[in-house]
Amino acid sequence: MVDKKKPIDTKLIHSGEPKPKILGSVSMPIFQSSTFESAGETSYHDVRYIRLNNTPNQIVLHKKLASIENGEDAIVTASGMAAISTTLYTLLSQGDHFLAQDSLYGGTHTLMSKDFPRRGITFDFIDGNKPETWKSAVKENTRLIYVETMSNPLLQVADLEAIVQFAKNNNLISIIDNTFASPVNFRPIEWGFDISIHSGSKYLNGHSDIVAGAVIGSHDIIDKIKFHLDHYGGSLDPHACFLLHRGMKTLSLRIERQNENALKISRFLELHPKVSKVNYPGLVSHPNYQTATSLFDGFGGMMSFVVEGTVQNSDDFISNLALPIDAPSLGGVDSLITRPAVSSHIGMTQKERERVGISENLIRFSVGIESPDDLIDDIEQSLSKI
Ligand code: PLP
Q: What residues does 142 pair with on adjacent strands?
């Protein structure tokens, strides 16, 4: 039985922690040991070894992650892409087909479009907001459906309740990349998704100092994913586990601030004469505002927008900023800003980007926890120069 009642704030601090504390240590110690003295394990997958994903720093995270998203079980991985690729390769075999939302993180899009066909796995992209078109894409060999909570970088919010229902009706496994929302703003398992995936490099860790991933789901699914992860080798090392665990303790506080900052900044940008478009699901003007309001506890710290003018104008705007750092990745305490066409979505062709609505001058903004007024002043001064 999952315990939905305990607020996430308390679970982030207390769930999964060793009891009693190890030698009284309030902070979870780092077990910097690749292997452990045998305790009579009888199966290869239970032999205690970092690659086999069963050492103390990994186990604490598995329990905490499962608890905060109300899943039965969880597993951490060496990166978000290790979580995505291991999950998909665990559930799909040669000859299988799946459905995916058409606008996704560039790395996921490239994995699907460039790697899967070589392995005899096919897929079709679907528009997450046109449920009436999904049925015709289902084939006899369709196994699963894959979406993002808020798509990277356009912040589209698919009809997630319809996705869950559609998956149930058609016997598909439903998978959602919940990185952008974080478990504070959305908990997919509560809404009926089978699997929730995170790039732990982003909000979960929150300090832009590690790369990590996580998968949350039923015992049965996580056991299967662990079996394959044990062989693929994409396991999280103890020091990264420690940093991820430490970062998660302040997740709720950070996300609350990032929700507030992003809402304030998106409203400022929307009214600015030099900004032609703002994608943020907390804006009433966002096409999926109603869906976002009904599903999420907050709208997150990510947005994208278009500055009037050329690509050069967008680049000048970014380089004239004093506070946000021109860098890929997202979800940390420092504001980061980037042009997806040359960073997160560089693996896609310009045509592929255009097809899903990612223009060359689109700017993606990961709002940090700085003062929102300082960020707005900085944006204002930079816009005034173009
Ligand atoms: N999912 C989303 C939504 C992302 O934005 C990213 C990376 O930017 C990933 C997954 C991949 O994560 P990682 O870089 O940790 O492999």
A: 97
Residues 169, 301, single domain; the answer is no
pLDDT digits (tens, 9 = 90+) for 157-182: 999 999 999 999 999 999 999 999 99
Domain termination residue (choose one: 199, 226, 248): 248
> What separation in Å is there between the alpha carbon of 260 and the centre of ligand 1?
23
Q: How far is the CA of 64 from the centre of ligand 1 (A)?
A: 20
Site residues for ligand 1, CB cut-off 6 Å: 79-81, 105, 107, 148, 152, 177, 179-180, 199, 201, 211, 213, 329, 344
**Does one domain contain both 193 and 271?**
no
Q: What tens digit of pLDDT does each residue of 236-255 get? A: 999 999 999 999 999 999 99
- Determine the pLDDT at residue 2: 47
Number of domains in the chain: 2
Going by alpha carbons, the residue nearest to atom 12 of ligand 1 is: 80
Query: Per the confidence metrics, is the pTM higher than 0.90?
Result: yes
Residue-range definition of the domain harbouring residue 301: 252-383
The dihedral through the CA atoms of 88, 89, 92, 96 has a sign that is positive
